[in-house]
């Protein structure tokens, strides 16, 4: 196993400690923004760099079908190479298509029953799609979901974006008493640029009593047991999901200004355990 020693820069906090815990405001990434980042050391335990010619079935499986997925989504998820492929340069491509008027296809993959972990750092480097009604996501779901159901299993949304706002990322948790539209959430806004024009690193660092959300190693949100308005359910293993949805309650609907295809490019996904 390789050791991930986090090298971090100390910055001076301008917004005060209260802003770190305010879970509904926008946080812009400015060079003058300051924070003293946690001094944690991690060891790599699981990864996929997408170097193969097809999806690694020892690590991932597909979610298939339609029905809205609880969010009134429009797409049908498939295992077709037109919706999920490798580009030959170590990138996974998840592509949403519109094969005919009002018909959408995409892909959603998960590590359920293949890999799950409680605590540590979960990280991916991704270039996201954009456009009205496009909903890319990198997220975690409690591995006990089949037993206790959602939201009792817990959900951690590491990267969730509304395609009509390609400069804003959302980090959220869902649990009993704070799910759906009542999730504990915070938005991170780029001061310049857009998430769909380059790769960015999305991560959470998760322990027994905290979940820290990062974009490009900038800590913009911390959730603790005192932050949630219900039960803290982040004390068991979670598995990984990657997908691009089309339409839904959270993001709205595609318009005539939404171009297709829409592709999310994933450079890698990595999971670490804390060693200090």
Verbal overview:
- The protein is mainly β.
- It has one domain (24-30, 42-274): Jelly Rolls.
- 3% of the residues lie in helices and 43% in strands.
- It has 2 helices and 19 strands.
- Strands 1, 3, 5, 6, 7, 8, 10, 15, 16, 17 and 19 form an 11-stranded mixed sheet that branches. It has an 8-stranded mixed sheet with strand order 2-14-13-12-11-18-9-4, with no helix packed on it.
- Strand 7 and strand 8 (103-106) form a beta hairpin.
- The longest helix is centred in the first third of the chain and has 5 residues, at 17-21.
- It is globular and about 50 Å long.
- Residues 1-32 have low confidence and may be disordered.
List the defining traits of the structure above.
8-stranded mixed sheet; 2 helices; Jelly Rolls; 276 residues; 11-stranded mixed sheet; 19 strands; mainly beta
Poorly predicted regions are 1-32
CATH level 3 topology:
Jelly Rolls
| CATH hierarchy: architecture | Sandwich
Radius of gyration: 18 Å
Instruction: State the separation between the terminal residues, measured CA to CA.
Output: 16 Å
Helix tally? 2
CATH class: Mainly Beta
β-strand number:
19
The biggest sheet, with number of strands, parallel, antiparallel or mixed sense and barrel status, is:
11 strands, mixed
The shape, in one word, is globular
- Helix percentage: under 10%
The count of domains is: 1
Query: Overall mean pLDDT score?
Result: 90
The proportion of residues in beta strands is 35-45%
Order of helices and strands: EHEEEEEEEEEEHEEEEEEEE
User: Which class of secondary structure composition applies to the elements?
Assistant: mainly beta
């Amino acid at each position: 196993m390789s050791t991930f020693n986090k090298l971090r820069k100390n910055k001076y906090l301008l917004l005060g400690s209260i802003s770190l815990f305010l879970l509904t405001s926008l946080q812009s990434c400015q060079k003058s923004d300051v924070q003293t980042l946690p001094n944690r050391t991690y060891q790599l335990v699981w990864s996929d760099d997408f170097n193969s010619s097809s999806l690694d079935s020892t690590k991932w499986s597909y979610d298939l079908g339609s029905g809205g997925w609880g969010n009134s989504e429009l797409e049908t998820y498939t295992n077709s190479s037109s919706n999920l492929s490798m580009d030959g340069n170590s990138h996974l491509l998840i592509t949403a298509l519109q094969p005919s008027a009002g018909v959408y296809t995409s892909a959603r993959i998960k590590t359920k029953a293949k890999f799950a972990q409680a605590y540590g750092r979960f990280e991916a480097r991704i270039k996201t799609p954009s456009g009205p009604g496009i909903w890319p996501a990198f997220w975690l779901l409690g591995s006990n979901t089949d037993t206790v159901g959602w939201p009792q299993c817990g959900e951690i949304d590491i990267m969730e974006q509304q395609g009509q706002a390609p400069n804003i990322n959302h980090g959220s948790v869902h649990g009993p008493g704070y799910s759906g539209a009542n999730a504990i959430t915070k938005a991170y806004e780029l001061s310049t640029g857009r998430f769909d024009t380059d790769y960015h690193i999305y991560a959470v660092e998760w322990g027994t009593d905290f979940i820290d959300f990062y974009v490009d190693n900038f800590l913009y949100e911390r959730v603790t047991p005192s932050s949630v308005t219900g039960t803290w359910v982040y004390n068991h293993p979670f598995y990984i999901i990657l997908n691009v949805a089309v339409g839904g309650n959270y993001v709205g609907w595609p318009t005539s200004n939404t171009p297709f295809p829409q592709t999310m490019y994933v450079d890698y996904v990595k999971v670490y355990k804390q060693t200090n």
